[in-house]
Design a protein that fits this description.
Strand content: under 5%
Number of helices: 9
Largest sheet: none
Radius of gyration: 37 Å
Length: 255
């Protein structure tokens, strides 16, 4: 039979129609599989994104802690350098004359009195440095630690050049340590040692600094503080030497 162009076209059309159902059914199956795969990849991507965010947050926290500790180590090194300069005669000692001079003569914690009576002025801080210091000391002796902390901080802020400022700085750091604000306490003792490396409270500050560092888990730095105390202040009060010895044994510090 002679195949004409018309017959060829009809035959091709028949084949297309006959095969149409098979071709029509395949795409929906492929589309469902593709959609499932896309959804699975999206879930995996979201999980990876969440994990990455968590790790980034932990990294930022770790970096902040490293920066804080590096700053503390730098401060400790500065304390050592300042003390060594004083001991070697390269720098003059911080003026500590008359420290505590007012403690024996100044009155005890005052009850506020004024023209309007005792109650109306009770919460006002004393305007006189001596009275302000004695009020802070009174809180400390009464074991009112938080009030003492605030009063010493107020004294330092208002009377930072007063003769009692070194004592106030030390006792402020001491009250912070007493309520276990160890990071702030360590910073306070470091500040005292930098300002007054041969001050009256320098041995106390070095020992208490070691205690604060131990509480922060910085055992190597704590051991260094106790070692510096033993070397720099061999004639310190016995109670301080006993405390340093106990803490050194507890930490198993190496010489």
């Amino acid at each position: 039979m002679k195949v004409t162009p018309l017959r060829a076209a009809l035959a091709a059309g028949a084949m297309f129609v006959t095969g149409a159902p098979a071709f029509a059914q395949a795409p929906p199956i492929d589309a469902y599989e593709r959609q499932d795969r896309i959804e699975e990849l999206e879930r995996q991507l979201q999980q990876a994104t969440d994990e990455n965010d968590r790790l980034q947050f932990q990294l930022q926290q770790a970096q902040a802690e490293v920066r804080r500790l590096q700053g503390m180590v730098t401060d400790l090194a500065a304390v050592r350098d300042a003390r060594d300069e004083v001991e070697s005669g390269r720098a003059p000692p911080a003026p500590a004359a008359n420290q505590g001079q007012r403690e024996a003569s100044a009155p005890g914690p005052r009850t506020a009195q004024g023209k309007l009576g005792t109650l109306e002025g009770a919460d006002l801080p004393p305007s006189d440095a001596g009275e302000a210091y004695q009020r802070a000391r009174g809180y400390l002796l009464a074991n009112q630690i938080r009030l003492a902390e605030d009063a010493f901080a107020d004294f330092v802020a208002r009377f930072g050049t007063d003769v009692n400022a070194p004592e106030a700085r030390y006792w402020h750091a001491f009250t912070l340590l007493a309520r276990e604000a160890n990071t702030e306490a360590a910073a306070g003792f470091v500040d005292y040692l930098r300002r007054y490396p041969r001050g009256r409270r320098a041995p106390d500050s070095m020992v208490r600094l070691g205690v604060a560092l131990k509480a922060l888990g910085r055992n190597a730095q704590a051991c260094q503080a106790f070692a510096d105390f033993t070397r720099a202040y061999p004639n310190a009060a016995q109670n301080l030497r006993d405390l340093a010895a106990r803490e050194t044994r507890a930490l198993r510090c190496t010489a």
